[in-house]
Amino acid sequence: MPVPGPRPGFVDDAFAKATAGPAPASQPVSRPSRMHRVFARWETWFGIALGAAAAAVVAVFVLRPPATSNEPAQEIALALNEARNIEVLIDSERNLDGATIRVAVTGSVALDGFDNDREIDWQTHLERGSNLLTLPIVARSTGGGQLVATVEHQGRSRQVIVNLTVQNPQEASRS
User: What is the C-alpha separation between 108 and 146, in angstroms, rounded?
Assistant: First the structure.
């Protein structure tokens, strides 16, 4: 098949445009920048959203407070000068070798047999499951107090708080 030739004046027009120089500034050439093309793609936005979600998950795990699990405080009433064994149940998800147990008392109660010590601690082994800790408490004066038992193991801690109220039996019977 024969190929048609160029239109008349085509060669002269092509040379004139080639040698004329740059286009006037009043007619800017609109070409998207490389960054514009990158941000116009859905894959870019999907990657940004995925990265932000991953950063949020990491931030939650890194910035959360230390793992302390505080049980709701129990309340027990004692009579003045009454000595009683208070039982504290400590549930463990696994065996804890070398766990530190710290017991502290505040206010109007004391550890029976440890009159001058408001806090004692020791290391022990806790079995997986329920562990019963029996603590001898004596009511020394009227008012409120607390028994706080803390178990620490490998940087994690768990705390059980028992609120104690000491009443004078003679005053309670008059009211």
Answer: 8
